Each structure stands twice: as structure tokens, then as C-alpha cells.
Amino acid sequence: xxxxxxxxxxxxxxxxxxxxxxxxxxxxxxxxxxxxxxxxxxxxxxxxxxxxxxxxxxxxxxxxxxxxxxxxxxxxxxxxxxxxxxxxxxxxxxxxxxxxxxxxxxxxxxxxxxxxxxxxxxxxxxxxxxxxxxxxxxxxxxxxxxxxxxxxxxxxxxxxxxxxxxxxxxxxxxxxxxxxxxxxxxxxxxxxxxxxxxxxxxxxxxxxxxxxxxxxxxxxxxxxxxxxxxxxxxxxxxxxxxxxxxxxxxxxxxxxxxxxxxxxxxxxxxxxxxxxxxxxxxxxxxxxxxxxxxxxxxxxxxxxxxxxxxxxxxxxxxxxxxxxxxxxxxxxxxxxxxxxxxxxxxxxxxxxxxxxxxxxxxxxxxxxxxxxxxxxxxxxxxxxxxxxxxxxxxxxxxxxxxxxxxxxxxxxxxxxxxxxxxxxxxxxxxxxxxxxxxxxxxxxxxxxxxxxxxxxxxxxxxxxxxxxxxxxxxxxxxxxxxxxxxxxxxxxxxxxxxxxxxxxxxxxxxxxxxxxxxxxxxxxxxxxxxxxxxxxxxxxxxxxxxxxxxxxxxxxxxxxxxxxxxxxxxxxxxxxxxxxxxxxxxxxxxxxxxxxxxxxxxxxxxxxxxxxxxxxxxxxxxxxxxxxxxxxxxxxxxxxxxxxxxxxxxxxxxxxxx
Length: 658
Known about the structure:
This protein is of the alpha/beta class and 658 residues long. The protein is built from 26 helices and 18 strands.
């Protein structure tokens, strides 16, 4: 390694560097410097780095600064859009201001974040646009499109999250025409991609990265959604197996089909008015037939699901017979009619997109129903407003090994939670980071926070077993006792929606103030209310286990109802466990326990987010202290003091909070 390059990292991020001189209250973090030097080595030597960087390490600067100094084309892939925006709007400007580094940077989000000018024009001309319920949102978008340079919906803060008009006018993989589009030169996605081509640092997210890799793999070339790059940093890397599995699998949903049919209706109505040989009724009738066929097909699918907890249910190959087979054939015939009708309008761009989308949905349905992917599991899921048919690879490691670790010169995997039982073995085996052809460095950087004196782990033995019918109610009662000690400021996190409902209902009966519950309002609204209140209680599910940051005493108690084991009946989980068993290994110890350890650590991480944070994490699952594997799980958690009685909790509270 070039010694001057290493000394530059030390100079910038070390205790005597510009950050230390410029920022009031700056605290030198040795772990940050250790990680930054490891990232720099990986970039200089074309290696893979796997780094667990505990909360508070400052891992974002630890990978951004060496990435910028390397002068290489680097993609930074985050788990969420919120983290993308934080890096782009806060971390990079700080680097420019305090470190005097001025990299060419581009922000690349998924296509659905960008307005499509052609779709906006088509929607504006449609009959639906005149409906009063769309007037406010459509007017807002039309005013904004005249001013925006990026077309990124994040700028349109006044547009409600999930607004139905946005779904009709945003870009997507299905609806893009590429260079054939008359709006291509002025397209917001085109602009974004040009910025990415010119930039050295591209801030993307896991969904976009894996969509890009799936496109490249499917097309057999390197022309994907992102420009070619020399290095990639996966932040929150513990999520990549699940996200990659979705993009290398297939999914057909009611939402996808209905979106196609709406666009088909608009395209046909627009062009048929200009044709004397056709009437508007032709296209509408074809779309209406497809709509009815879609409803019948998904009704038949859902009817074959086992009831119980929400989630994916396996679909055996044998179900493709009788009324379901007939319903699929009717839907396929209806989509073929859409395809052929669109083909008539060969010079109309929107109709050509409809034709391609209809063909792709037919192809995906056929691949799922015919079981073309032998190493995949087929499933169906009924959601609140849609149903989804999917096929997910049982094993994704080989694909990632080939497409990422053996293809990209430098790969960095980092997160606060990557190890289980003190090793990276589980992560490496799941994501393909175990290739003999790739040089890999492993690094564990502990959190600088004082968990021993500022955090407490309460794990009681006297709770009923999680399988006990009274467990959820007992969780609520014990949570209420803990909330009484802390005076609120609590997250109560449940591993299922059913448990969340029971716990919330019981807490509403017990507590003087009714707690908030996930779903009562959008996630960010709930978090804003929680922070502002200071004494609130929020009952939620797994979506609040990670990526949620509430610093300070507003959050001083985190209650986890159960050890977060993966749902054993989930078809993908069950298939992966069966594959492990076929290899002669124990799926519980090789899959369930390591995965639970990482997830449990994420839940614990909601509590201590800064040096000033303090409080209690309660895991109300007795198995954490009564089962042999509990030692592994406890060993993966931060070194907070462990107690088993409420009296010890009260003593800690008095000592720390006075």
C-alpha cells in the first residue's frame, strides 16, 4: 500500500485532523480510523472487506473518505432511501466543508422515485385525471414538474406517502421505453443516469443494485441500471440475502397486473380515437376481460392458501390443475389479447410498452407455473390490498459469488450486525463471500458506547413459554410494569401482527395513556410524534426493529416480546432449512440461531444510538436464559449488564436516571 495514501486517511480522520479541529465536542473514534484504513487497503489491493462496525463507530465516514481518496468509481449501496439522503445531504457536504474533498457524486434511487414525463402526459389526458379526488395531487405534481431538476419525489414533501396519483405517473422498469421514448432527452431517469456516468461516487441502494445485477445477468452484458463500477460498499449488508433473492426471483401481483391494465386502457383510448377502423370500446372491452380474468385467477390462488398468520404460503406444483389451471389459461389468453391489440399500434410508444409488459407478465406466470426454476420455491401471499404469486431462489449465494465477489474488484460489506457467535461464518456462507478466488479481510470494530454503565438487558425466567396461549397478554402486563418504571419512552416490538394487536389492546386497557400502534399513521409521522412527546409508548412489529433512530431520553425502554426466529413455515425459510438438512447439518443451529442473533442485535440497537443515550432492553422470552442456544444469542449482544428481576431493573433505573 502507498504509505502517503494511508497517512492521508490518518491525517483527515485522526485525533489531530480537520474534523477534530473544526467540530465542537468532537470525539476521536479509534474504531473509525481502524475501519477507514481497512477500507483503504481493500480499495488499493482489490480485496473484499467484511467489517462489523458497532453503533457509534462512524462507519459512514470510515468508508466514504477512503472511497473518495481512491479516485475509483465506487457505488455506495444503502438499505434505505433515508440513509441515501442522509449521506447525500449531510455526510458528503460535511466532507466537502471540513475535509476539503470535492468528489463528483450522484444520487441514484429506484425508478419509482422519479417522475415519468410521458406517463404524466398520458394520465393528464385520461378520463381519470378529471376525477375530483385526484385534482389536488395532480395539480401539485404539474406545478412541481416545471421547477424540478431531478424529478425525485423526495423533493415533493407535500405529496402524501403512497399517493395514488404518483403510482400512475412515476417511472418503472415495466414502463420505460428507453431511447425510443419521445421524452428521452428530457427524462429524469436519463438525467440521473448521466449524472451517475460522470460521477466517481454513486449513492445507490440495495434494491437498485440488485435490480441492476439482475438486468445484467438476464441480458448477458454489462448494460444495466447503473454504470460500470470498480468497487461497491454495502452498508447494512445483513439485508442483502433477502433483497437479492427477490430480484433474482419472479413475482406477479394483482398490483402489477392492474397497473398494466390501467395503462393499457389509457393507451388504447388515446390512440383509438384517432383511428376510423376501431372504436374506443374495443380496447376497453379487452382490458375489462383481462381485469375479470385477473380477479378470478388470484381468487383461485388465495383459495389454496392455508389460513393463519399473514405471510407467504407454499404452493405445490400439483395445484396447477382444475379450476386454477383454467383460470391461469384464461388470464394468459386475456393478456395475449392485450398484447396483440397493442401490437396493432406499432407507432404508438405507450402501446408498445403495454405490449412488452403483457408479454413479460405472461412469461413470468408461465415460468412460475411450469416450475422452470428447479432450485426455487413457489409461494403465494395475500396482503391487505393485493395478492402476490412468487418464485424465490432457495440459494442465492452462488449467484452473488459469481456476480459480485468474483466480478467486482473491491467489495466492502459493513453493518453494526454481521457476526453471530463472534464470527462472520454465517454471513459469508449466505451471501457467497466465501469464494476461494477472492482475498478477504475480516474486521470487528466494537461500539465506543459505554453499554456496561448506561444500558441494561432484562431477560426474565418467570415468563410463560412463547407457545403458551397467554403469552402475548403476559408480555403486555410485564411491559406495563416496565413502562411504569421508566415513565414511558418505550418501544414495544412484537414478532407478529397478531401479537402486536393483543399487546396493544391489553396495554390500552392497563395504561393511563393509550399507546400508539404501527399502522395508526405513516411510520415517519409516528416517529415524529414519539420524539416530540417524550413519554410515549409505541407498539410495533419487525419493521421498527432496524433503521429507526430515536436519540436521547425520548426512547429509554425497548421491549422485545420474543427471540426473532425466522418463521419456520415461511416457504423460503423452510426450503433453505431443508437444503441445509440435506447437507447433513442442523438447520436450527446453522440457520435459525445465527439469523436470530443478528436480528436480535438489531432490535437491541434501537436503544443506544449516541453517547448520551441510556436505558433498558427487555427480552421477554425465557428461552434467552433457559435454553442452551440462549448463550450464543446473549453473547452476540452488546455488553450491557444482565438482570432477571424487576427489582434489579428498578435499582438500575434509580442509579442511572436518579
